Amino acid sequence: MKLNEIYENFLMPPRKFSPIPFWFLNNDLKEEEIIWALDEFEDKHIYGAVLHPRTGLEIDYLSDEYFQKFKFIIEEMKKRNQFIVLYDEYNWPSGPVGGKLLREHPEFKQKYLDYEIIKLEKNKLVEFVCEGHFLAAFTINLKTNEVTDIRSLFDGEKLSLKVDSTDSELVVFNVKILDELFFATSAAPIMKGERGYIDVLNPAAVKFFIEQTHEKYKHYFGEEFGKSIIGMFTDEPGHYASLMWTDDFPNQFKKEKKYDLIPHLYKLVYEIEDYVKVKNDYHDLTLKLYENSFYKQIGDWCRKNNIPLTGHLIMEEELHYLPRMHGGLFAPYRHFGIPGIDYLSDKSGYEIKSSVVLPNPNFTTKFISSISHSLGAERTLCEVYGGCGWQTTLEKLKTVMVWMATCGINLFNFHASHLSLKGLRKRDFPASHFVQEPWWNYYSTYSDMTMRLSYFNTIGIHKANIAVLFPKRTFWTEHTVYKKSILFKKLISEFGKVGNMLLRIQMDYDYIFEEQILENLTSIKKNKLKLKNEEFSVLVLPPMTTIPKVVYEFIKKYYDEGGFVISFGLTPANSPKLKNDPEIQAINSHIFGVNNPNEEIVRTNKNGGKAIFIPSIQFKNEIKGETHLKDLFSRENVPKTINIKSESSRNFIYQHRVIDNLNFYLVCNMSKRDGHVKISLFNSGYLEIWDPETGERYAYKHIQDGFKFNFKPFQALIFILSPIKSAIKEWPQEPLINKELTPIVLKTNWDIELESKNKYLLDDWEFKLTSRRPEGPEEIKRKQKIAEKFNKKIKVSNEVFERMRNFVKTSDKVKTSRYSLFDTYEEFGPVLETTLGISMVDDFGALYELMELVGVLSEKIGLKLKEFQPGDEFQISKKFEIAEIPDGEIKFVYEDIGMPLKIEINGKKFDWDDLDEMSEKYFVYDNSNRAIPIKNILRTGENNVKINLKLPEYPDRMPSFHGIEPFTLVGDFSVSNDKIYPLTKNLDSGDWCSKGFPNYSGGIWYKQKFNLSRKYLKNRLFLEFKKVKETIEMKINGKYVGTRTWSPYKLEISKYIKEGNNDLEIFVRNTAANFFSFPKKSGILGSVKIVPYLT
């Protein structure tokens, strides 16, 4: 492929490289709204979407009406040449068929193996009441490791026993049925709230799921599979609680492993006897059943029907949970046509330091692109930005996107575009990549950049010199559900550090998986490892305890034939069959000279093989570890394809791709500061630079031993080495400031003009509950169980909770309901650890149990995350003041969510029956908005609003809960401290929230005149902003100058100015947070100046 042809595709990529948002189909799917949304997508250069039945859907899932609606959507998308990915569930996780599987086949509900450990006191009677189906019980003497099987003591309800030792524990194993409420059966009027999830280890259950879902889509739209419909998305399948189990598992285990598991269950918890073998046998079989039942069965169906399987697993990135949730990564993902992940953040892996939600972010993107490379998959998907909140910005989204692209992602599934925000839908893991966000107007710039980088990631093949072995069986061996060992946590931490350090010193890598060696997918070619199209010069072994003998023998062979092996922290001692296996230890000695090295070792052999062992102490501190690795790799000639030299080089990430004799290097500065670097590319040729933001192409002088370059904050550029010189313009050199002229600092006072009417969100309501549906016996019982679990796990006195309540800001008033879930989890993590002494990864066997715990804990400390119950009836009231009645109409805007509503303003009543007649449709942020003209009701001084309402009765789920929706005054006014004033016509620089517009989400034109003397006209002039939130669009003398959707906020104005007076207009947009969340600083926040540069 010729370079010019590649460039043409890069400049205007084919439509298939478009981002594909989750399109939340979450209302009654009116045809006019579908057309409106698709036209918006087209205008923003979004040429495909995942059709996602979602929270709030008002049409019976998988009914004839549902498919007729989908038929209309698909036909409209085909007209626009937009492509479609189907989604295999209502909400998520995939499998329950919107509750039908749980209703019609309760035997298909997920089961799990759980255990509880009780510390025994000498001669004290313990009576343990068993929950679920009793399986086994043992006493363990912690001093002697003596085990006693006490199954015979179970009387059908409880265990009763005494021990004569102070060093014993009781461990009881039960099989339970998962009984949580999932999103897949809640949060829509069509849902019935069935509890539980599909048994992903049961082929019959998965077969039913396919018959009821995939086959129905095939019936209606099968002719479009592989044409306009390009994928089937499965979302967050997995094992949701404690250890994997399924019907008849003991018999299947005995058949496969030739022994009875039940008497050995304690070895899944305690490091006793042959626990290494039992753990590996258990996880080996559960993974086999899980893979074949769910992924192979669905993957085979998708291949047969010419529709690639895509999507991702539940928490696939979280290694603390991996052994029990999935068992492995390569085994499930080998059945995907388009492997994918989920990334719940608007911060890159270079920005996140410590996160409850994403503890190891760089691993996530690297492992999935590695799997795609090994499968030969052209595309790698990431569902990204879910739950980031309304305050996210295009700059944040762009920063994450370029980091992901450099890690190998090339199909961006943005979460999400909400068709409607009516009711609880606005709390469905926002932000919304749609009209509700002010920055939506500039989305095409973002889409175009995404498309270019997605296309880049399909050029030729990825080139990395390093392969990092994923130590699956080490994680199996060291994992327990509760109270994870120090070693297990250290292994996971150091595994993440190894990957992070390699990225930070620009040593790109792929992960390889044990299966790829065991199944002969990886070969040795001369002194390199070959896997599909990838070739690796170096094999990195992270800290390990356990490795299959065949895998380690392969590594030994690689070393003997001239390969380069680097081991970090800990060499393995066990095989999956035997702890301290002599054959494993012999390989250690062969490669590293000693069985269990604890100091740095460098060894070579006669065939040029090299082995390095790096002890943990060298990378205990990650930054110091990076410096040590750089020096070591330089000294030992570890191969590199690029070198980036700078004090800030650890802020850079790159990817190298090769096609024919062309070398492409995507290089990104992941810092908010400029990056002055010296780049050496270890290939020859003429150098070009392609800018994915603009699509422009430049020539640049290539110096073999390195060229200097300055990157802007978060800038991504592609450097190309070509054997042929292209006739293109040179990269523009940075202009120098003309120090003989003083920059012109503009006035801080601006005339302003709002894009739309100002909004005053009524909030901090007086609250009175008038009716609440009584809880049924099952609900009461379930709440009692949650409270009991809470008290078992958190043994803390009420005084501790009292002290915590003192730090929580509470109020007798209630607020308009807002989304805040992920922020809450990030805040609660440290509280759980430091104050209550429990760990989110140690003490919970079930994901949704953890979510319930957060709810219980929040109430105990006075922080109510969920104020209301479905069906609640209540009255809210609010007082506000008007200093002076403003000019123009004032409207009272509310949402018509289809529930009874009474509004009273200063004694004027609007009953439910009157509202349709007294109000009008009035789009503020949703088609459910209605407005009542109220100016003639308002008065100077105190005004009163009283509202009676009833919430929908269908089941909700945090964070998509029923609550108080926005009640808003809209008009030409300013607001300060719950007081309305006439609209201000000018504004000083600074946060507009504190200057009359606290709830205003949208755009404001800032206008002023400035005078320019002739001496400035001979220079290149730039208008530069010190700080602005969030986007700018500029006109000078009526002519459009340009737009900046992210930093640097700087535009050249030389062509637009004149001597004397000039008219400047700057249009600033913020985010939707000021209206849907809490006010964030908005507007022109710092100085604005005209800076002269030499021509």
Q: How would you describe the overall organization of this protein?
A:
The protein is α+β, with helices and mostly antiparallel strands and 1095 residues long. It folds into seven domains: 18-107 and 179-459, Glycosidases (TIM Barrel, Alpha-Beta Barrel), CATH 3.20.20.80; 111-177; 466-640, Class I glutamine amidotransferase (GATase) domain (Rossmann fold), CATH 3.40.50.880; 645-722, Golgi alpha-mannosidase II (Immunoglobulin-like); 744-755 and 980-1093, Jelly Rolls; 758-763 and 870-971, Galactose-binding domain-like (Jelly Rolls, Sandwich); 766-812 and 821-860, no CATH class. 26% of the residues lie in helices and 27% in strands. It is built from 25 helices and 58 strands. The strands form 13 sheets. Strands 38, 39, 41, 42, 45, 47 and 48 form a seven-stranded mixed beta sheet that branches. Strands 12-10-3-2-1-16 form a six-stranded parallel beta sheet. α2 (31-43) links the parallel β1 (22-25) and β2 (48-53). α2 runs parallel beside α3 and α12 packs parallel to α13. The longest helix is centred in the N-terminal third of the chain and has 30 residues, at 275-304. The protein is globular, with a radius of gyration of 31 Å.
CATH topology of the largest domain: TIM Barrel
Q: Report the uncertain regions.
A: none
Give the C-alpha Rg: 31 Å
Helix share, percent? 25-40%
Principal-axes shape call: globular
N-to-C span: 39 Å
Strand content: 25-35%
The total of helices stands at 25
> What can be said about the biggest beta sheet?
7 strands, mixed
CATH superfamily grouping of the largest domain = Glycosidases
Annotation, overall tally of beta strands: 58
Q: Give the tally of structural domains.
A: 7
> What is the CATH class name of the largest domain?
Alpha Beta
Q: What structural category arises from helix and sheet content?
A: alpha+beta
Average pLDDT: 95
The CATH architecture of the largest domain would be Alpha-Beta Barrel
